[in-house]
Amino acid sequence: MNHFWIILIGALVGSSCSILGCFLVLRKMSMIGDAISHSVLPGIVIAFLISGSRESLVMMFGAAAIGLVTVFLIQMFQNSGVQADASIGVVFTALFAVGVVLISLYTRQVDLDLDCVLYGEIAYAPWDTLHIGGQSIGPKAVWGVGASFLLNILVIGLFYKQFKISTFDPALAASLGIPVVFFHYLLMSLVSISTVASFESVGAILVVGMIIVPAATAYLLTDKLSRMIIISIVLSIVSSLLGYYVAYLLDASIGGTMVAVTGVLFIVALFFSPKHGVLIKKWSRKKVLQQN
Amino acid sequence: MFQMIKKWTMIGLVLVVSLAGCSASDVSKEGKETGKIRVTTTIGMINDIVINVGGEHVETTGLMKSGVDPHLYKASQGDIKKLDAADMIFYNGLHLEGKMVDIFEKMAKKKPTIAVSKNIPEEKLHTTKDGSKSVDPHIWFNVKHWISATETVGEELSKFDPKHADDYKQNAEKYMEKLRQLDEYVTAQIATIPEQTRVLVTAHDAFGYFGEAYDIKVMGLQGISTASEYGSKDVSELRDYLVKNKIKAVFVESSVPKKAIEAVIEGAKEKGHEVNIGGELFSDAMGAEGTEEGTYIGMVRHNVDTIVSALK
Q1: How far is CA B51 from the centre of its chain?
Q2: A12-38: b (≥16 Cβ within 10 Å) or e
Q3: Which of B4, B25, B77, B105 to mutate to test the interface with A (most CBs of A within 10 A)?
Q4: Is the model's pLDDT at B19 over the cut of 70?
């Protein structure tokens, strides 16, 4: 049963992250998952200083608050003309640095770092069960990540057209009367909520990887957004299945192997994609040359 | 678009279920035939207690291998099997294992999952100076605390397997006697260091209990967590202290990088005071399996002998 739960959690994290990842890749903001994984440090320190406890719930609350601050600052800087990658870089390094300074000032005597108070471990997630009236209703991670997956599907599904137009052509969207800025912030809030919820149950590497790699792979395989989203979800599910099996064979870190498999799939797509693949391009160039 | 999502999710779910089904059957078969109690522990020091107390009735595996820093431990797929197949689990507790402690507390509902630190009276535990409820988890540095941990393991094994309760009691008694001798040895050895140079300088603050129990001043460069960073003021303060009190040696730890402490040595040298690296101490992890330092007693003896010969 544990195997099933872990694969299911991996697939849910993957699906939830890759839906958002598609939009982030198209906006050249795919490093935002990595950014949030670092910038939440001051959040947990402040939450600890206020509450004096390292309870998961308190830590997650602090992290979620700073996660939102992170994406809002990034979006704000970007709106005022800073390049996307630069604004991500500036915000997360600055916030991470604040966290390091806070730890060295106030909490040197406490074992307080992201790895041990915020990041969960997918291998142990099946035992972290939720109970209602003394009855176990499955791992907490399934419910938490599942809820954020549904939220993402719901919001993106409802405003699919708006998200799509404001991603590809913000100027056109604005002229059509779509509140572009609002949808940017909405997308960013979804990113923040999904990543922090997933960090807490499965750890950082899986989330950061699942945001970028399946979406980037799907980008190579299709030119249509709706297809890109579906392909990236399928890729992330396949990766969590295969990744778990590889982890089982090698006795390795589960999150690590799942992301490694997404990387392998990416390379396969890079070479063999029917439209943009390296080999296909080479081959068609040869054909053109021969014809001349 | 929703239609397509639905279709693909269904296909995905079917895949998930089928693969999970075929791999689930091959786990948790080993060890059952031998009739031994299967115990899983976290750090090597606890594993050592279980080996000594459980004797022939118990088969024990540790999650963290030698040389691994428990603060930064990364789980592997095999851990699931180890935890799943275990009849009992022993861990340190007091947040040493980080977020895993939450999991262990949940698992306690299903099978005996015991923190070996649970019977150490609260007033004997070190809390941090900043007034929060955080406790220093490195209890094994005070051998008396480890005697209490041994007692806990003995009691819990007897409770789980009453048939062999007498054996566990005897084994625990034997091991505790060895630990008592070890405790006396440490006290006597440390006392041979002249009082003004009786200072233990290491990279991270793991030796708090050691210092208190055996009357040696302890100074660390890093905080309790090996992940926290040290400030430049820490380096210069520690350097000045070494120079002023003419401390002969500082120590490196097996599971913490040497770089930090080397900066202090360089600094002292510039001020004209020669400090040596007194040797490598085992702090959060024991030595390699099969060696003398791969046991708790061997590890403590190694630490004490290293400290005494460098500072005397």
Answers
A1: 16
A2: bbbbbbbbbbbbbbbbebbbbbbbbbb
A3: B77
A4: no
User: With respect to CATH, is domain A2-291 assigned 3.40.605.10?
Assistant: no
Q: With cut-offs at 50, 70 and 90, classify the pLDDT of residue B261.
A: confident
Instruction: Measure B127 CA to nearest chain A CA, in Å.
Output: 9
| ipTM for this prediction | 0.75
* Structural domains of chain B in order of their starting residue, each with its CATH number: 37-187 (3.40.50.1980), 192-311 (3.40.50.1980)
User: pLDDT-derived band of residue B40, with 50, 70 and 90 as boundaries?
Assistant: very high
Helix (H, G, I), strand (E, B) or coil at B63: coil
Chain B CB contacts of A250 under 8 Å are 77
**What pTM was computed for the model?**
0.81
Alpha-carbon span B124 to B139, nearest angstrom: 10
Q: Does A199 touch chain B (CB under 8 A)?
A: no
**A13-32 residues touching B, CB cutoff 8 A:** 15
Residue-wise pLDDT tens digits, A85-113: 899 999 999 999 999 888 878 776 676 77
**Interchain pair A252, B76: CB under 8 A:** yes
